Amino acid sequence: MKFTLVFLFLTSFSFAQPNTELYLMDISENGDSLQITNFKNISNRPGYDNQPSFIDNTKLVYAGTENDNTEIILYYLESDGQHRLNAPTAGGEYSPQSFPSKPLVAAVRLDTTGLQRLYSYEYGIPGYGKWKMLFEELEVAYFAFQDDDRIIASVLSGDKLDLVVGTISKDQALLLTTNTGRSIHRVPSSSSISYTQLNTEGTYDIYIVDIDDTGESFYVCTLPMGIQDHIWLNNSTLLLGSNDKLFMMDLFKGTNWFKVADLSEKNISNITRMAISPDGKHLAIVAMPQEK
Length: 292
Hints:
globular, 25 strands, five-stranded antiparallel beta sheet, mainly beta
């Protein structure tokens, strides 16, 4: 059964975008802390640079500012080079990430007409990637791939987000749950997806769901007050950013968050979104630069 959604979501991106920067670093575990090396700003320009996602251990994509528009930027770790991935559009692209096993990137596009849809983009020819609309009516806000044909996505429902399973080949979406958040991630070495859901106290709980198994959601833990984002370092370890520090939770050791890195000397604040490379050696974070 087709679950039709007609929403407005990303219109706020057309104005008052925060001046965020994207930072990349190498990480390694050192006891109960993370050792940070080779820390650098890889966007380093005015405007909105956000929503990183690794294609593999040598490439990542993010939503970056180019000519006052938000584009899909492809960054090469080994050469420190980067360029616009997609052919120019009249709209802006957000939340880019690669398909699990196809040479394509998916991103949410907001056109100047207000039309918001999820598209796929080729990236074989730098700056000229052709696109294809993936859903005729579904307005995706945030998403993660279950496989090449299915996504778990938060979509806007009135003044809140709801979680759906979208099947690209059928152009269908089925409701999973309501009142969810923006942080959706594949749990490493598993077929489960984690997502966040707003609780009655105004904070976000992390749940996991495996739609190929029972399809039931299981509570994992609660994010600290004011935090919306999380990632997985492995299938039992969570990471989040708060102000200029990184915190970890090892689910084998309990449900307490403990500080693993202090980035205050890097002149950043308000760490939000993060991404980890498949080999676990590179961490990308979004933060606000502090004036020196």
